[in-house]
What we know:
Blueprint: H1 7-12, E1 29-33, E2 39-40, E3 54-59, E4 65-70, E5 77-82, H2 86-92, E6 102-111, E7 117-126, E8 133-141, E9 149-156, H3 163-173, E10 186-188, H4 196-206
Amino acid sequence: MRHPISVSLVGVLALAGAISAPSFAQPNDSAYVRVFDDCIHPDPVAAGYNEEARLADCAGYDGWTVHTWVGPMPAPTFIAYSDRGVETQWQEGPPNLDIGHAFGDVMEWRLDASGKPFATILRSIFTGFCSPGQYLTVTALRSEGEVGGCQVAYIEAVDQANPNQMARDAADYLAPDWECGVDVPITFDEYGESDVMAVVERRRAAQ
């Protein structure tokens, strides 16, 4: 079964930020799930992976499942989403995302006005020697897409003033019209972008 938790506990886990959105925001909401508490772990060799790989198919939210592949360093990490069943998820073949070697305990699911999830936010923990750190990875969900989800943004989660709200803004304003397979994920940190809404406005102006 899934393990939804309260917003107050999310705060304890350092995932909660200011939850108020700009006055012009959509009426979106969030659900929080300890997604990695409810998983099955397929045999990596039988699935065609290296025996040292750690595989997990986990119950997400509202019928979605989350698949992760974590290999021995310095191998990348894979993650995939599907609401069409685990077998479909495996057939989709998660893309090489290289988003970290560990994940936060809680996944935030952004919900539209009807309560349907359209994006997720997950803390990714990089432990490599080149660029260790933590980022909030924003993923757009695509129920009818060729794959179940694609990355939208990486929000540096330690040094910025309010990374949680930045991630929600990226989910709310970028994920809905994100073109999976076309748009390149945007990094928000000291070396990349710093203002989500400025990026939103640039994209709108370019349309």
